[in-house]
UniProtKB/TrEMBL annotation:
It comes from Laetiporus sulphureus 93-53. This is DNA 3'-5' helicase. The lineage of its organism: Eukaryota, Fungi, Dikarya, Basidiomycota, Agaricomycotina. Keywords: ATP-binding, DNA-binding, Helicase, Hydrolase, Isomerase, Nucleotide-binding. Residues 24-323 form the UvrD-like helicase ATP-binding domain. Its EC number is 5.6.2.4.
């Protein structure tokens, strides 16, 4: 038990207040925190409902209210970043000392630690290396080469990536190579019984047989290299806990975050850890389950209820992130999911501007408008209260980022693309870590392959072939061969091979000597740089200064790493040795296993190897750059303004996705990243693989609009004083000064609209940097009603030879209510667009038919719900909702006059061989109350 004397050590007098951790919790949160620890609990927490706060408060309550010792608690997160955040929050409640005693980290990290300590139980070596994804792919490719011809002779072509995916999925389901083959044969036998297509099943059998052989050969390679891949950490973790259940007896309560993302093996791990106590708390949201392609199993919630029959559920439905209008639209999307657990979200921030749904003629117009008509406009219209870092463009695929990066760059707006790259993926970081891996584990051949000739040592293919041949002959690793050659135990002591490998081996041996004396990871890196002259190697690279900065950052990380406190934030995920020794006092236990202290070098390598967090940059960078990310990468994040482009069939849902409900949940996750403003756009045609394809709005939205056409608006809307006040209140910022807004809007209009009168109420006319040099164009801002009805915009006719600004006499008066209706060019009957697109394609576009050139839409067109008109409204603010639900329509007024485009002349930008063209729209108006 955690006694009162220990409780008194918590920092600060406020820590002595009874149940202080229950402060500022709502009723449902408080109920979840105080739930009896011996009754399994599922906390189903919607986005923005404060789940991390509840989880940390529950840990505090288990310690302060129920007397559990901190080292008897295990908290599992899905990312190291989440573990670090939880650790910071928990330390504010129970103090840093007690927080450090809580075992906290990812499933992979927890298993890695137990496998290090208890490796011999399942026949592993303590110094195994965690093989990263790149090295894993290389190994599988090598193993697959042997069998590729066998499949091709049978008329089967399967990519290495597909083989790797099948193997990973098999491991995530807990299947060995033999189990996988047995399962596959059972499936094909079932198919044969129900189908007469015997040749087809024979091909399937061939694929499964080859994949099983590749799987087994891959495992043999891993074991020969004394390494495990990420999936192995979990599989061997389950095997370890199955063989020796006493290993997890220390745990009296396990808490698992993001439970909806667990796979079958992770569920088994949770069961094993909870075997003795049966005390489990999970936090998850089935509506945010978006990793089925990574073998996440949404059925684990129901499996838990069967495995732990007393399980209770508590719903967290109070959303503290988004406005009511955003929640209304988001809930309407996710409610389409079949067999969904019924739950809702209640708003904290009433009203708010409605989500905007806009339609464009093509992807170029879409990206140009998003940058100039949304991002730049909002920064000006809010008087600078919104900053570049407050905007996020969320994409279904990374490949769609290029036009947005280009459009932002053309406007001088900084951006960053969250592609999911890790710091540890950078070449110079991988090089240095590979040196250290060989120091710790000479059997790890991928590290040898990487750095045997970095920096260059004149070791060519002939010398390497000789090393690999000796390794095969002697049944040892290439590094061990190199050491034997250097020592004169293998080959001719005077051979050229010995002379070439000697310098390399000396570096490794010297680093190993220092490591055995307890040298820190940072000191070893410095020694490696000096011994290998790696800095000189970097200076030969064109971007060597950036690379050298990464090296310095790696040294800084290594210096901050505290191996003696494995559960600290620098280690992220380790389990304390003292904890294991105290927790596993059982008869017959081998103390040497429980008390083995991990060398500093090995602990550092492991922390680098199992890192699963993509870089997010420093906090101050967020205020300076527009964010571009995939919808998957955005999970767990939030921004004041979220823009989701390309909301079309073939994007949402993705063409090859076989789980439409998961695609809907992904869109729901993307929408709920928005705090204040949400924009969704789509285009009628999009350039794909060099050809235009006709596109149609996603069924996910057309169904929503059919059921409730007032959830979205086609209007940009205007900020009233109350809107700015709500925005400032939600973001914790000052309401902008009226004159500052006027100044920024005047500057914005002057920059974006050459034909503007300068009035800040005029909507901008942007300039597309991506249109052809001699193109005249006008952008149609099409109502959501037209989007649902499927009406395409008409294109203006214009002379190709004209590429100059309008004369003053032809410029429309934007103060006139009819200006936007009378601005089309009249001088030609054939547009450039019509000349570029064949007549047959034009006919197809006008008829709203799908393109036949490699388009996936025809196969799914029947699933699209029938169109329903969407009411146009000039009231874009959703009124506060009453009751518990956040869904429902809002009041609307009379529709405005339809908006079309104002023509401006083409103007070539300096230094660019592109034309700049205007895109005006009168519907976006300035904050209310301004003259």
């Amino acid at each position: 038990m955690f006694h009162a004397r220990q409780l008194s050590k918590l920092a600060g007098p406020r820590r002595m207040m009874a149940h202080y951790y229950l402060e500022n919790l709502n009723e449902a949160q408080r109920k979840a925190v105080r739930h009896p620890p011996n009754v399994p609990l599922q906390i189903l927490a919607g986005p923005g409902s404060g789940k991390t706060k509840v989880l940390t408060s529950r840990i505090a309550h288990l310690i302060m209210g129920h007397g559990l010792s901190p080292h008897e608690i295990c908290a599992v997160t899905f990312t190291n970043k989440a573990a670090a955040e939880m650790r910071v929050r928990l330390s504010r409640l129970i103090g840093e000392d007690n927080t450090s005693k809580v075992t906290m980290g990812t499933f992979h990290a927890l298993c890695a630690r137990f496998l290090r300590v208890h490796a011999s139980v399942i026949g592993l070596e303590h110094n195994f290396t965690v093989c990263d994804a790149d090295e894993s792919k290389k190994m599988i490719k090598t193993c697959y080469e042997t069998y590729k011809d066998v499949l091709e002779d049978s008329g089967i072509v399967i990519a290495e990536a597909a083989v790797a995916s099948i193997i990973s999925k098999a491991k995530a389901e807990g299947h060995s190579a033999a189990d996988f083959l047995k399962k596959c044969r059972h499936i094909t036998q079932s198919i044969r019984k129900s189908s007469s297509n015997a040749p087809g099943t024979r091909k399937i059998d061939n694929i499964h047989a080859v994949v099983a052989k590749v799987y087994q050969k891959y495992q043999d390679h891993l074991r020969a290299a004394n390494s495990l891949d990420f999936d192995d950490l979990l599989m061997y973790g389950v095997e370890l806990l199955s063989r020796d259940p006493t290993i997890s007896e220390w745990c009296r309560h396990i808490l698992v975050d993001e439970f909806q993302d667990t796979n079958d093996v992770q569920f088994k791990l949770m069961q094993h850890i909870a075997t003795s106590s049966r005390c489990v708390t999970i936090v998850g949201d089935p509506d945010q389950s978006i990793y089925g392609w990574r073998s996440a199993n949404t059925e684990n919630l129901s499996k838990m209820q069967k495995a732990f029959p007393l399980t209770r559920q508590i719903f967290l439905e109070q959303n503290y992130r988004s406005t009511a209008s955003i929640l209304n639209a988001s809930m309407a999307i996710v409610e389409q999911v079949e067999d969904r657990i019924p739950k809702t979200l209640r708003h904290t921030h009433a009203g708010g501007l409605k989500p905007v749904l806009q339609r464009f003629y093509d992807g170029r117009e879409e990206s140009a408008f998003i940058v100039r008509g949304i991002i730049k406009k909002l920064v000006a219209a809010t008087g600078g209260m919104l900053r570049w870092g407050d905007f996020a463009i969320l994409l279904r695929f990374n490949a769609y980022s290029r036009p947005f990066e280009s459009a932002l760059q053309s406007q001088g707006i900084p951006c960053r693309v969250l592609r999911g790259y890790k710091f540890s993926d950078r070449a110079e970081v991988k090089d240095i870590v590979a040196y250290l891996q060989l120091v710790d584990n000479p059997k790890y051949s991928p590290a040898f392959d990487r750095i045997i000739n970095i920096p260059r040592r004149g070791i060519g293919n002939k010398a390497l072939s000789e090393i690999y041949a000796l390794a095969t002959q002697e049944k040892i690793s290439p590094m061990e061969v190199a050491e034997c050659v250097h020592a004169g135990h293998v080959g001719d002591p005077k051979s050229a091979l010995r002379q070439k490998v000697t310098s390399f081996v000396k570096i490794i041996l010297e680093l190993r000597r220092q490591a055995n004396k307890g040298a820190s990871a940072s000191d070893l890196i410095r020694s490696m740089l000096e011994l290998s002259d790696y800095g000189k190697h970097l200076r030969s690279q064109p971007d060597w200064e950036d690379r050298w900065e990464n090296v310095q950052e790696l040294i800084s990380f290594a210096a901050e790493f505290q191996p003696e406190s494995p559960t600290s934030s620098s280690d992220l995920t380790q389990t304390k040795e003292s904890h294991l020794k105290e927790a596993r006092q059982v008869p017959g236990e081998k103390d040497s296993l429980a008390s083995t202290e991990e060398p500093p070098l090995r602990a550092f390598i492991q922390a680098m190897g199992i890192s699963n967090d993509a870089e997010s940059g420093d906090d101050d960078i967020r205020d300076q750059k527009v964010n571009i990310a995939t919808c998957h990468a955005a999970k767990g994040l939030e921004w004041p303004v979220v823009i989701i482009p390309a909301m079309e069939e073939g994007t949402f849902p993705a063409p090859h996705s076989d789980d439409r409900d998961e695609e809907r949940r992904l869109l729901y996750v993307a929408c709920t990243r928005a705090q204040c403003l949400l924009y969704v756009t789509h285009a009628d045609r999009r350039m794909i693989a060099g050809k235009y394809q006709t596109k149609r709005m996603s069924r996910f939205l057309s169904t929503v609009l059919e059921n409730d056409p007032e959830l979205f608006t086609d209007e940009q809307g205007r900020f009233l004083g109350s809107d700015l006040e709500q925005l400032a209140q939600m973001l914790g910022r000052e309401v902008p000064d009226k004159h500052e807004i006027e100044r920024r809007m005047a500057a914005y209009n002057a920059a974006m609209e050459p034909c503007s009168t300068g009035d800040h109420q005029d909507f901008f006319a942007g300039r597309s940097s991506e249109l052809p040099l001699n193109a005249w164009t006008s952008t149609e801002f099409i109502s959501a009603k037209a989007s649902v009805e499927g009406r395409l915009p008409t294109r203006p006719s214009h002379p190709q030879q004209n590429s100059r600004p309008l004369s003053p006499s032809r410029r429309p008066n934007l103060d006139s209510s009819s200006a936007l209706l009378t601005s089309r060019p009249q001088s030609s009957t054939t547009s450039q667009f019509q000349q570029e697109v064949p007549p047959s394609a034009m006919k197809a576009i006008r008829k709203e038919t799908f393109s036949s050139s490699g388009n996936a839409e025809p196969a799914i067109a029947k699933e699209i719900p029938p169109a329903m008109p969407l009411a146009t409204t000039n009231q874009t603010r959703a009124p506060p909702r009453t009751g518990s639900s956040a869904a429902g329509p809002s009041a609307h007024g009379k529709p405005n006059a339809p908006s079309t485009a104002t023509l401006t002349g083409g103007k070539r930008r300096l230094g660019m061989s592109r034309t700049a063209v205007g895109y005006p729209n009168k519907k976006f108006k300035p904050p209310g109350g301004l003259p």
